[in-house]
Design goal:
alpha/beta, elongated, binds adenosine-5'-diphosphate, UDP-N-acetylmuramoyl-L-alanine:D-glutamate ligase, binds ligand NPW, 7-stranded parallel sheet, single chain, binds potassium ion, Rossmann fold, 9-stranded mixed sheet
Length: 491
């Protein structure tokens, strides 16, 4: 499990730890870790050109001391001093080790550029000359390593207002910052390496949590010797319409591959024919009227993919939501409940799985605002609606009604293709039917779905059905202890 924190939380912990240590200890630990990652990236250090972008705060101090260490190993290190002041002891250390102060024109010739402009002490968009230096680093051919946080990315939220450094690697000190895991910040951070500076014992409860293989393996249900198909969990799927038959096929496929004991599909004749043709395993009810009264007992429902949004779909949604089992609502189901919020008044749990556009419909916020501050918006929606919300997109976030939040770190941009969301609804729905809470089903579902996406893509395009097919292999990767897909920033 990875835990991530806001800038305020980190500052508080650093304050406590610093009071117990001789002055400068933490910065030396940070610089040592930073220099080690840089040396690794450079391969051999002697003679390589390193440019440090140095801001006025301790982030610049980290860069200067790391530069000192690289200079001692023979690197040609130049510091671009961007701030109104500079960490004096750090600059002295660099100069004594043979480093120099240089102009911004040297950025283009560097093998490695160390971004020490601002870290967790930043506020608002990058000012000049920092913004210009960030752009110059992005345009240069050298590898860019961000110190603690890419400058221009808000460490607490992942917001990017204006220019920001686009790093190949971010070396972060003491603990992960939320903004390194949530887009757009995560995109700018690249691969994230954590340097242990002894902060672990002093951090409070995390702002967000990212599950790893071990956590998901622990949560995923496994059939016991006594299991039968009913006890493993039966999922009902109310999806598809005469216009959209594929969504039903994909949702049922995701559910069957994710371990439901049985899937009961309920729909109109056209999607029924398609589901029958693809999945003889599913138990079918042809719905003559918009009601689930004739469908046998289930432990959870998936409601919405391809359902349509007319009166009939509305009435079917009302019938599903009147049941006493957990319901995952996706796609058209979300449009229906956005128009008729009363449908969400129920005692059994609800999991909503919108993308940003659907969340905008639900809450009235602007889509662009949601994309810019995903965590804030998913938390607010979960609290306002009193349900669990999984926000899909380049980083998937899950929030519960009491403010708890998880971020999914698996996934691949190859998943950005029609129908993969339908597969996710089936996967997460199957986990709900197997007894996981909405919060766990959402997080484990997103994790397995993201990993399945990576396996299915393997560097080339995928179709949504391939993701469903890859779900068992993804579960195997999670439960076998393989390290596949565990590194941060590999997409
Ligand atoms: N504390 C510790 O023990 C440890 C800390 N560590 C390291 O320290 C870092 C935090 O250092 P920090 O607190 O000095 O703040 P930091 O991020 O360098 O910058 C603040 C300065 O930047 C400026 N500035 C702000 N916003 C700006 C903007 N938009 N655009 C332009 N400029 C802007 C502003 O300066 P001014 O405007 O006054 O010139 C402000 O004073 C942390 O990320 C980690 O790397 C590690 O070594 C581990 C031990
Ligand atoms: N850029 C991206 N990187 C990673 N995952 C993505 C990206 N874009 C979309 N996804 C994932 O792909 C799926 C798309 O779902 P959705 O938007 O509902 O599509 P559809 O309705 O066509 O099924 C979600 O799981 C989402 O998180
Ligand atoms: K930085």
């Amino acid at each position: 499990m990875r835990t991530a924190y806001t800038a305020d939380q980190i500052r508080g912990a650093e304050h406590t730890l610093m009071a117990r240590l001789p002055e400068g200890t933490l910065m030396q630990r940070a610089a040592a870790g930073l220099a080690a990652v840089c040396a690794d990236l450079l391969g051999h250090v002697y003679g390589r050109r390193v440019v440090l972008l140095v801001g006025s705060g301790d982030n610049g101090g980290d860069a200067l001391y790391a530069g000192q260490r690289l200079a001692r190993r023979g690197a040609r290190v130049g510091a671009v001093l961007a701030g109104s002041k500079t960490h004096e002891a750090g600059l002295r250390a660099l100069l004594e080790a043979g480093g120099r102060v240089v102009g911004a024109d040297e950025i283009g010739a560097a093998d490695l550029i160390l971004d020490g402009l601002v870290g967790i002490g930043a506020s608002g968009a990058l000012r000049e000359p920092y913004a210009r230096l960030a752009e110059a680093a992005n345009a240069a051919p050298g590898r860019v390593v961000a110190v603690d946080v890419p400058s221009g990315v808000d460490a607490s939220s992942g917001r990017v207002e204006g220019a920001a450094v686009r790093a190949a690697v971010t070396v972060t000190m003491g603990a992960y910052k939320t903004g390194l895991l949530v887009d757009p910040g995560a995109e700018f951070a690249g691969r994230v390496e954590l340097v242990d500076i002894g902060l672990g014992a002093y951090v409070p409860d995390p702002d967000v949590v990212a599950l790893g293989h071990e956590d998901v393996a622990r949560l995923l249900p496994r059939p016991g010797a006594e299991s039968d198909k009913y006890r493993r969990g039966v999922l009902g799927v109310a999806a598809g319409s005469h216009l959209y038959t594929g969504a039903a096929v994909l949702a049922v496929g995701g559910a069957l591959r994710a371990g439901a004991g049985m899937v009961r599909y309920a729909g109109a004749e056209e999607p029924v024919a398609q589901v029958r043709a693809h999945w003889p395993e599913a138990v079918i009810t042809v719905l003559d009227r918009p009601s689930i009264d004739e469908v046998g007992r289930v432990q959870a429902w998936v409601l919405g993919p391809g359902l349509g949004t007319g009166e009939r779909a509305h009435d079917l949604a009302a019938s599903v939501l009147a049941s006493d089992v957990p319901v995952l609502i996706d796609a058209d189901g979300l449009t229906i409940v956005a128009k008729d919020r009363e449908l969400l008044r129920r005692t059994a749990p609800v999991l909503l799985t919108p993308h940003a556009g659907e969340l905008a419909r639900l809450t009235g916020a602007e889509r662009a605002d949601i994309e810019a501050a995903r965590l804030e918006h998913v938390r607010a929606a979960a609290a306002e609606l009193g349900v669990t919300v999984l926000l899909k997109g380049s980083t998937t976030l899950i929030a519960g009604p009491s403010g708890q939040a998880r971020v999914n770190v698996t996934g691949s941009s190859w998943l950005a293709t029609g129908g993969t969301g339908d597969v996710l609804s089936g996967v997460a729905g199957a986990l709900l039917a197997q007894g996981l809470s909405c919060y766990d089903a959402a997080a484990c579902g997103a994790y397995v779905h993201g990993l399945a996406g990576r396996l299915a893509a393997d560097g080339a395009p995928l179709a949504a059905a391939d993701v469903a097919t890859a779900v068992p292999a993804a579960i195997r990767a999670v439960t076998s202890g393989s390290a596949y897909g565990e590194k941060l920033g590999e997409r």
